[in-house]
Amino acid sequence: xxxxxxxxxxxxxxxxxxxxxxxxxxxxxxxxxxxxxxxxxxxxxxxxxxxxxxxxxxxxxxxxxxxxxxxxxxxxxxxxxxxxxxxxxxxxxxxxxxxxxxxxxxxxxxxxxxxxxxxxxxxxxxxxxxxxxxxxxxxxxxxxxxxxxxxxxxxxxxxxxxxxxxxxxxxxxxxxxxxxxxxxxxxxxxxxxxxxxxxxxxxxxxxxxxxxxxxxxxxxxxxxxxxxxxxxxxxxxxxxxxxxxxxxxxxxxxxxxxxxxxxxxxxxxxxxxxxxxxxxxxxxxxxxxxxxxxxxxxxxxxxxxxxxxxxxxxxxxxxxxxxxxxxxxxxxxxxxxxxxxxxxxxxxxxxxxxxxxxxxxxxxxxxxxxxxxxxxxxxxx
Length: 381
Description:
The protein is of the alpha+beta class. It has helices at about 5, 60-65, 110-120, 125-135, 155-165, 185-200, 210-215, 235-240, 245-250; strands at about 20-30, 35-45, 50, 75-80, 80-85, 95, 170-175, 205-210, 220-225, 230-235, 255-265, 270-275, 280, 295-300, 305, 315-325, 330-340, 345-350, 365-370, 375-380.
């Protein structure tokens, strides 16, 4: 079950729901360069929201403006109904966790976590109570007397998270929080982060360039490119119904075929490939004119590969030769070269254990590719 399937409520679908964080027309310029370009965004209380994009797209700059470390060139930002543009960083109801963690090397775990509360003048009994609670939540009780150099990367990450959360911010901002961890530890820590966020109910905004991380963590994702948000939705929406070729290729991978509409009805679209005349049948209609230029995207895991020719000719059928095979353990990736020269990628689960190293489909085999009408997505640009 995906994270967005687990949500009992989706306040972004309720026109009466008030956003907890509101970003209105925010722009940030550095001289002649526009890092963030007139963006709007509504985020609701309790979301774990990801801003996803490549390096230099503007996502970290936007996060720093929300934290108060950068000043917008124009636009307004609100948290819980209060405009925060003129509120200094240290007075905003937010905390920020950096990729570097920035722990004090001479302090123990519990002293690192307590430091911000001490600086704020919180009573010692309250500090003790809060530190004990958060240490238990992040499961660091047996390490509370250790110093950062005595901890693993994942443990240091949890200390940094506990230090950020112990001040009970309304919003926690996380800039590439898992980037310093290896792949296996990063995957494990993603679920720990989700569980902690659900327990506390704090609104999280995570900046990341890692598509898998965003898909795993998020209630919703906003994909950013060149300072603008180009699509916002749940992980399922972003993956299954991308708005553009850029999104289709940036979130996972996709086989994209250019064509033109030859038939458009309320329940289907028929597209003819401009390259070789192949037909693609999609089981939903579109508000688009016939003969319009269009693209059809099909995810690699939705394509069936077989050495057996389909019993009947029809749309959503291609033929080619296996050009390359990548064995990934649980999956095999096949690259098939079509008769027109195009390479199509297919991902196939290895459901049967093989000890011989042989593939059911092997190099240079002629194969037939098919997919269901519901598996393709039509893209206008």
